[in-house]
Amino acid sequence: MAKYKIAWLPGDGVGVEVLEAARIILDKINLDAEYIHGDIGWNYWCTEGDALPERTINLLNNVDAALFGAITSKPVKAAAAELIPELQNKGLTYRSPIVRMRQLFDLYICLRPCKAYKGNPLNYKEGIDIVVFRENTEDLYSGVEFNPVPEKLAKTLSDLSKPFSSFKDVPLNDYAISCKINTKKGSERIIRAAFDFAKKFNRKKVTVVHKANVVRATDGLFLETAKEVAKDFPDIHLDDANIDAMTMWLLKNPFNYDVLVAPNLYGDIISDLCAQMVGGLGFGCSGNIGEKLAVFEPTHGSAPKYSGMYKVNPIATILSTKMMLDWLGENEKAVIIENAVAKVIAEGKVRTYDMGGNSSTIEMAEEIASKI
Ligand code: IPM
Ligand code: MG
């Protein structure tokens, strides 16, 4: 029996291609693993009404980790229109399967390292090395949303709110509510994870990203929790910034930042910005990490316009694979993969289109494999 069971979730579009590339690396490094395919994606929504079928959830309950490609997502109405006729009008609602996996398996850490590898022509500046910790289960991703708004809720809110609230006396169909729900527990565990990481890897500063000056209840709780957690880490500097200012300061002086920690939505936004500074989504790797399971994925989407072309950069997925090995405790293998990626980037002989070259997804993976 293999040492590890890995759920293999290619999903849609280029997800299939980048996972093929990752497999070239895993085979070269000889990981003692069994890779078990899981059905996930747009197809399963259209034909079964579920993009994350029960059998895939069962699979995820029985593996050590998962590697995930990408999923095509569409807004609720557009998604409903693509269901097969038998499933129409059953009131099925589409929710992104990655968001569901994060919540179902309590993958509360979204870890997104953003490192500028030397010689990457897409680096915003050489030497950037920022690690984003994004809360991954709550906040505006709670899934508690209303459109139309139930009458009872509308009345409660109307009674509680100030007389000038824009939604007073608006018909129930004409406004919508998405709940930003943050808990002390949810905030504390992601902030602690960021500090633990900083301590382990000798990083000096953790910056909390928020908007506590306006979104007082939820972001206020997040910031206050950070101040409490920071007391346990006297050697690490706690810094904080509003999300809007943060987008400017990050560009102005990326070297002022080290580890960032943010509630879900701000983390989503800021991690794209950080990824862009180190080469764009072709370099955006990530891990969705819980206590029992972790799902690793490139942060780019399924890129339908490139689907089937074997054009996209597999480095984001290969670095996510490296993160998976770290999580499994295969740190030596993880280092070998990262070094191979760094070497190929520095040499600059094989480059995908985003890097100004014309090598394919598979050629890039093979070049990296050749350095292992
Ligand atoms: C990400 C993505 C997802 C998110 C989408 C695909 C639901 O943008 O992983 O950053 O919003 O979390
Ligand atoms: Mg995102």
What's the short version?
It contains 13 helices and twelve strands.
Structure notes:
- This protein is an alpha/beta fold.
- It folds into three domains: 1-118 and 282-372, Isopropylmalate Dehydrogenase; 145-178, no CATH class; 182-277, Response regulator (Rossmann fold, 3-Layer(aba) Sandwich).
- It is 41% helix and 17% strand.
- The protein contains 13 helices and twelve strands.
- The chain has helices spanning 14-29, 42-48, 54-60, 76-81, 97-104, 151-160, 184-200, 216-230, 243-252, 264-277, 315-328, 331-347, 361-370; strands at residues 4-11, 33-37, 65-70, 109-115, 129-135, 145-146, 177-178, 205-210, 237-242, 259-262, 285-289, 294-298.
- A ten-stranded mixed β-sheet has the order 2-1-3-12-11-4-5-10-8-9, sandwiched between helices. It has a two-stranded antiparallel sheet with strand order 6-7.
- Helix 1 runs parallel beside helix 13 (361-370).
- The longest helix is centred in the middle third of the chain and has 17 residues, at 184-200.
- It is globular.
- The structure holds 3-isopropylmalic acid and magnesium ion (MG).
- The site of 3-isopropylmalic acid has 6 residues, from helix 5.
Enumerate how many helices there are, as a single number.
13
Oligomer: single chain
CA radius of gyration is 21 Å
Structural class estimated from helices and strands? alpha/beta
| Ligands bound to this protein structure | 3-isopropylmalic acid, magnesium ion
Biggest β-sheet description = 10 strands, mixed
Helix content: 40-55%
Q: Which homologous superfamily in CATH is the superfamily of the largest domain?
A: Isopropylmalate Dehydrogenase
Written as H for each helix and E for each strand, in order along the chain, the element string is: EHEHHEHHEEEHEHEHEHEHEEHHH
CATH architecture of the largest domain: 3-Layer(aba) Sandwich
